[in-house]
Amino acid sequence: MLPNKNSWAEPYKIKMVELLKMTTAEQRKKALEDAGYNTFLLKSEDVYIDLLTDSGTSAMSDEQWSGMMLGDEAYAGSKNYYNLEKTVQDIYGYKYLVPTHQGRGAENILSQVMIKPGDIVPGNMYFTTTRLHQELAGGDFHDVIVDEAHDSASAYPFKGNIDLNKVEKLVQEYGAARIPYICVAVTVNLAGGQPVSMANLKELRAYTQEKGIKIMLDMTRIAENAYFIQQKEEGYRLKTIAEIVNEICSYTDGGTFSGKKDALVNIGGFLALNDWDVFEEARNMVVVYEGLHTYGGLAGRDMEAMAIGIRESVQDAHMKARIGQVLYLGEQMEAFGIPIVKPIGGHGIFVDAKQFLPHIPQDDFPAQTLAAEIYLDAGIRTMERGIVSAGRKANGENYYPNLELVRFTIPRRVYTQAHMDVIAESTARVYERRKEIKGLKMVYEPKYLRFFQARFQPL
Ligand code: F0G
């Protein structure tokens, strides 16, 4: 009998492996205490399956590795820069390129060039570094994502969408002149890797063009967003990921990019622009913070690997397997009854810690607690995306985000389906004993981006 499914499989085979250390429960308990119950402070050596992030953790292809040997390590005008520039023009359609060491380098430059103190910067939910750079430049961030994004149970297919009424309200209240640009993330990381629809982008473009407001993308996971448009949006089923990526960019004025995600490299990023004036200033500013405008903090070989990775990232077979693996893990977890954000997003599974540990109040850090417990069970490292990540407002008060999540982020081309089974089973064991789990108290809090370095103790 023919099977009635059409399974995805990896469009590559494995040429080299990295051996992992297996740990005992006792060793993990000690490692977690030493790390102040913060998974960011664990030594990677003590981790079995590392789902802390999909950032800079991908496996490069043999072509990318051979590209590393083509590094032209000239201080100025390296040929790898020109190859990257051409790739950005071909794939994304933007005119001008400013390379940076990673995404936040580009965010810093874009924010400083475009935001004046007192400006309003709308965005579809926030990302930690993006919002901080906007605020450091004197901007005031406003969330304009659709309400569905803040509801982990809503099955709305495009939870990354911008609510135009929320944008209109800001325009009414502050005037379009105080809004230098709208920052649109594709996909939205903290909402659970949720996509923006093409229809929404088109509508936003029409509205903002009328008001003279620019659109800047956070294009970090744009190929993943394109995959969801292909799969879920009417009229895109027969388009390629490459075509969809190009169309997304066509409705915007530029974007910041962390090459460490979609582009399958361990380091790298850029700012891409269509306006000469903005580019001119950004190109001047990059020499202050990153390096000359033809390397921006990267070695020639890094730019080469990123250029090759960008082209690999828009291959349909790659994206089908990439998101297929994430979906597989999500479905395993759901089968165990574990509460996860739905629909399943692009770069990982987001477990709802409020539902998982309903007896732990948000001030006792349920998601931080859950990430610690997951590590204890089998050495799987995840990340808190809740009240710790949200940080404090300018006036010192805590942000209280609706979503209190633990992110199981899947590196690209790194783990196998068997690893996914182990992850789901380990999480199910923790779920089984959830009622015994108690919260944490924060005993050290750094000033910026506290989630990276904060320390905790069990209550
Ligand atoms: N924008 C988004 C949506 C991101 O997810 C990240 C990084 C950045 C910008 C910043 O890029 O790290 O290259 O400076 N996200 C990583 C993560 C850190 O784990 O989600 P970067």
Strand content: 5-15%
Mean pLDDT: 97
**Total number of domains:** 2
Specify the overall morphology: globular
Could you give the distance between the termini?
A: 56 Å
Task: Write down the Rg.
Answer: 21 Å
How many β-strand stretches?
14
Placed side by side, the strands forming the largest sheet appear as 2-8-7-6-5
CATH top-level class of the largest domain:
Alpha Beta
In CATH terms, the superfamily of the largest domain is Type I PLP-dependent aspartate aminotransferase-like (Major domain)
Detail the poorly predicted runs: none
Gist?
The chain has 459 residues and is α/β, with parallel strands linked by helices.
Break the fold down into its secondary structure elements and pairings:
Elements lengths: L24 H10 L14 E2 L11 H7 L10 H14 L3 E5 L2 H12 L5 E4 L4 H9 L3 E4 L20 H11 L6 E5 L12 H14 L2 E5 L3 H11 L8 H10 L3 E5 L10 E5 L2 H14 L10 H14 L2 H20 L12 E5 H4 L9 H13 L1 E2 L1 E3 L1 H4 L14 E5 L7 H16 L7 E5 L10 E4 L1
Parallel strand pairs: 1-10, 3-4, 5-6, 6-7
Antiparallel strand pairs: 2-8, 7-8, 9-12, 11-12, 13-14
Helix pairs in contact: 1-14, 2-11, 3-11, 4-5, 4-10, 8-9, 12-16, 14-16
This protein binds ligand F0G.
Question: Main attributes?
Answer:
alpha/beta; Aspartate Aminotransferase, domain 1; Aspartate Aminotransferase, domain 2; 16 helices; single chain; 5-stranded mixed beta sheet; binds ligand F0G
Describe the protein in words:
The chain folds into 2 domains: 25-54 and 316-458, Aspartate Aminotransferase, domain 1, CATH 3.90.1150; 62-313, Type I PLP-dependent aspartate aminotransferase-like (Major domain) (Aspartate Aminotransferase, domain 2, 3-Layer(aba) Sandwich), CATH 3.40.640. The model has no long low-confidence stretch (mean pLDDT 97). The relative contact order is 0.16. Helix 4 runs parallel beside helix 5 (128-136), helix 4 crosses helix 10 and helix 12 packs parallel to helix 16. The protein has 16 helices and 14 strands. It is globular. Helices cover 40% and strands 13% of the residues. It has 459 residues and is an alpha/beta fold. It has a 5-stranded mixed beta sheet, with helices on both faces. Residues 53, 55, 102-104, 127, 129-130, 185, 189, 218, 220, 258, 260, 269 line the site of ligand F0G.
